[in-house]
Design brief:
By secondary structure, the chain is an alpha/beta fold. It contains eight helices and seven strands. Belongs to the KTI12 family.
Length: 268
């Protein structure tokens, strides 16, 4: 089932949004993994997996302290997504996802599974609000790292196939009341509805040659291949004892006879 990639600058409200989205999807989506459950049973919601730094687990200050740590963190997040992504599970990736190349890799993973994919950009407009949110929590970014990650964020562009469908959500700072100062924004519940529509009504990207899953060989394929090879060798060695160059002989597993040209030894 679908992959939902949440991206945004540090301390912009992504995790709060993600937890709410997971609960919303569990209530709204049927659960194909539990066909025998009744509608009133406790675990009737769909299989939805949340992947983020906390699930690794890794502290944000450690996971993004330098380029090497960032690479490891992204690799572990990608591995978690790859492990969870299947036809029966909705995967919500809650992280910075600030590099467009990484978002492209995630898109390719969803494409390989031929499942829907969407990007949710949690776009907090004011950096000072995010900085205050960062300072108020236990797992915080150091000030220098916060500023660095904020400046390096590569905003998603809907024109890029790996960034669409793109759904934007602007959290409301606590200082703002029920009425928005700069025009009406979509509420969080409205954005949840948009995400649900994107993953249930949207068309899954077709797997290309570079992303198509290679067919898996049967567990006994190697054994069967060896058996056929042995039969062929035995047949050829036996028939050449009574054949002359130019004779037509038949061998097992072959639909047409073959021309015997010369005697060959087993090593050859």
């Amino acid at each position: 089932m679908p992959l939902i990639t949440i991206c945004g600058q540090p301390a912009s409200g992504k995790t709060t949004f993600a937890h709410g989205l997971v609960e919303y999807l569990k209530k709204k989506l049927p659960n194909p993994c539990r066909p025998g459950k009744g509608k009133d049973e406790e675990d009737r919601g769909s299989a939805v997996v949340l992947v983020n730094e906390e699930a690794l687990p890794v502290l944000k200050a450690e996971g993004y302290r330098d380029a090497a740590a960032e690479k490891i963190t992204r690799g572990e997040l990608k591995s978690k997504v790859d492990h969870a992504l299947n036809r029966d599970t909705v995967v919500v990736l809650d992280s910075l996802n600030y590099i467009k190349g990484f978002r492209y890799q995630l898109y390719c993973m969803a494409r390989a599974e031929t499942t829907q994919h969407c990007v949710v950009w949690v776009a907090l407009e004011h950096q000072h609000v995010a900085r205050a949110w960062n300072e108020s929590r236990e797992d915080r970014y150091p000030p220098e790292l916060f500023d660095d990650l904020w400046g390096r964020f590569e905003a998603p562009v809907e024109g890029n196939r790996w960034d669409r469908p793109l759904i934007c959500y602007s959290p409301r700072p606590p200082s703002e009341g029920a009425e928005e100062k700069e025009g009406r924004r979509s509420t969080r519940d409205e954005v949840y509805q948009q995400v649900l529509a994107a993953i249930t009504e949207g068309k899954a990207p077709a797997a290309g040659l570079s992303t198509a899953t290679a067919p898996r060989n049967d567990a006994d394929a190697l054994f069967l291949l060896d058996q056929v090879t042995q039969r062929l060798l035995s047949s050829i060695l036996e028939r050449q004892k009574t054949s002359m160059p130019g004779d037509i002989i038949t061998v097992p597993e072959a639909r047409t006879p073959v021309c015997f040209r010369r005697h060959v030894g087993l090593p050859e």
